[in-house]
Amino acid sequence: MKPSLTPVGLLGCGSIGVTLAQAIQKDPSIHGSLVCLFDKDPGSAERLNAKLEQPVEFIRSFEEFVEAPFDLLVECASQEAVRDYAEKALEAGKDLLIMSLGALMEEPLWERLNRLAAARSRVIYLPSGAIGGLDLVRAAGMGKLYEVSLTTTKNPSALAGAPFFSLRGIDPQGIRGRVELYEGPAGEAVKLFPANVNVAAALSLAGIGGEKTRVKIVADSALRENIHEIKVKGDFGEATITVTNVPHPENPKTSTLAALSALETLRRACLRNAGFPFIS
Known about the structure:
The chain is α/β, with parallel strands linked by helices. It has helices at 15-26, 42-51, 62-66, 79-91, 107-119, 134-140, 156-159, 163-168, 186-192, 198-206, 256-273, and strands spanning 6-11, 32-38, 57-59, 72-75, 95-98, 124-125, 145-154, 178-185, 214-220, 226-234, 237-245, 247-248, 251-255. The chain starts with 5 loop residues before the first strand and ends in a 7-residue tail after the last helix.
């Protein structure tokens, strides 16, 4: 049986939004149909629409957007967008795919979203992003986990714009060599580097939470890739997972793998929405 297409609404029209929107229209394996776009900056939506083979409606207010005839809302905007719009989307009967996982480190918000999704019989999809091994972390968490840590190393230009630099009075372009910028709980890391460490949020949600998961952020001016090293210790033993990622060609703050992870999660969400619950 050929699955039907899942109607999709896209919230956020930056580099990841462009990748997802074009893939929905070009890749038949995703089984999605792009219905409309929304971005707080209407110019971003217009620019994305101009890149599409089949332009769609871009809507200027979220209230109108969330009432449009789509089943799956794909967020690829910001942590702020998740805080502002995720609950409203669930209340409107939409399934959610959330890219800005850092917002979910706020436990009251994550709890409210889970309760609301259950009450409305909706599904929330979370991509693994630019790392791997989350299945191992979740499995190990069925026993006892003693330690989960993440070291993220990027070129300073890939970290530029993070609130950390203005708070510390540091110019990222002035960094030479290898400099450790931050070490502490993941919950704080996602606030200081909101556009760079969604991986910390993904790891925390899979394991022992944002306060117990330790994160180290390193800037290395000689580096051209983004490197994430995960270390896990528990009753099961120990594991170290290292992922070296090529930066996304349109946005060096994220990795190409993060975009691919979003595409794979989108495919699963569309297939499940179309009536294929065996898709994992």
